[in-house]
Amino acid sequence: MKVLMVNKFLHPNGGSETYIFKLGDALKAAGHEVEFFGMEHEGRCVGNSVNAYTKDMDFHDAGKLEKLTYPVKTIYSSDARKKIRLVLDDFKPDVVHLNNFNYQLTPSVILEIVKWRKKTGHPCRIVYTAHDYQLVCPNHMCNNPNTGENCEKCLSGKFLSCTKGKCIHGSTAKSLIGTMEATFWKMKGTYKYIDAFLCCSNFMKSKLDANPLFAGRTIAIHNFIDHIPWKEVSKEDYVLYFGRFSKEKGIGTMIEAAKKMPEVSFVFAGKGPLEDQLGGIPNIQGVGFKSGEELEDLIRKARVSVYPSEWYENCPFSVMESQLYGTPVIGADIGGIPELIREGETGLLFESGNADALCDAIKKIALDEENAEKMHEACRDLSFDNLEEYLEKLLKIYAQD
Prior knowledge:
By secondary structure, the chain is an alpha/beta fold. The protein has helices spanning 15-29, 64-73, 78-91, 108-120, 160-164, 172-188, 202-209, 251-260, 292-301, 317-324, 355-366, 369-380, 387-399, and strands at residues 2-6, 33-37, 95-98, 125-130, 143-144, 149-150, 196-199, 218-220, 239-244, 266-271, 284-288, 304-307, 329-332, 347-350.
């Protein structure tokens, strides 16, 4: 099988890039042919045989003249159509697997795939992995950054609320472009050509299903995670938060809970805009950003880790990682988080944004060593899809008529 992976970034940049690189390697290892299409970049590490890529669009460092043309280029790209056509003619994929494409590549590429498929008669399935809520929310988070509130006003396909709420970077102009982009492609009906929408949680699936255009073609399939070998360690008496220090991640609620529980030690690992709020609280130890073995050691030794998010998380790796390292998780009951925790067995859920509810949950684990040990042992039997298992499911989706 020939698979063309489409993603705007073809260099290490975030979760979607990690996803396409690992999936591409797994497909090749299984005997399939894989090529990639996206933007050119000095750090590009994957590609295609004809070296056809669109020009790198940098919204932050662009010159004044370039910025003037961006509103049009972020909605429709004739360059992306021309370049992907070169790849289609040469590679002749059986599947085009779309990932993040809005604003840089634009949905123009879908029109070209359909045009090529019709002209050549070559059967080519179009599959899309939703890494966020972009197709139903122009700011991709279902969250208004100005108010911090979760928002579902655009789910039905009416996108003017994005402009009214200044939902993209707090800018009316940028939000208007987002509204125009979403409205334009809705009117063209371009997304009807996508055969399957892969959602990394049942929660995300429910949000896409709110739009009649997508309902019936969505498939919930949790993200894969690398195998983590079990290792016995001596637990230490601290509650761990690791991640970004920002409002939507619930860091404020976490700090409030720590203040209410001076008898409990908290360790905060990470960085972000609210980092200064950690200072002056005796039972909070900020250890900065950690990764690799240092982070693993922190997670394994923690009595419990907390994921207090206040936005519609999809399928956070941190929740899966923590449990596979043997540490139960207290997670906010929001987004896809509840799907990853066996309530009362490998962790607990609490009302998102409720510091008192979080304190109650922490008491049940951090201050109850027997219960904490029971949950630690339950994590031993927990499993999530690894790459091989995910690939097996994906190949079935690829092969569907």
